[in-house]
Give the backbone structure.
Amino acid sequence: MHLGETSNILKRGGIGVLPTDTLYGVVGSALRRKTVERIYKLRKRNPKKPFIVLIGSMLDVRRFGVALDSQTLGVLRALWPGPVSIILPVKTKKLAYLHRGTKTIAFRLPRPKALRRLLKKTGPLVAPSANPEGKPPALTVAEARAYFGENVDFYVAGGRRDVPPSTLIELRDGRVVVLRAGALSRRAQKMLQ
């Protein structure tokens, strides 16, 4: 399946499985409530846990009402693009279906150019790992198919994805706090030490 076909399905509210910059993810438009809820049901996800949102540009966070002060912008520039998901405050009630009452969303600007091109066409995508909650993440498209079968609209193969999930960080009082250690670029490793 090529980029145009995949992006059209996603823009229409469809969901699919594709390789992200870390693991295979179940992806769908972050700006469509029905799409997000469909992924929660498909993955049997705890409804209180928000999904990570992949973005195609640093400025995409503004679509979620995130205000970027100079300190936050400096951290984002130092860590992105790369496999680091950064929790930012999102206070708007209309996005409660995304932040699940936490008033925060973890965003990630992935490094692979092909994935960023897709995100520029589709807009931000939720991208939880391709597995039902409590099961191991799918490392191949075949494993994802075994989990989801025909319940997703497409699958994109990208070989075996046996890498750690993204590193998850939060900014607290100007400090970077690592909540989950995972994949990191060398540049990010230096910054987070």
Notes: The first strand starts at residue 16 and ends at 19.
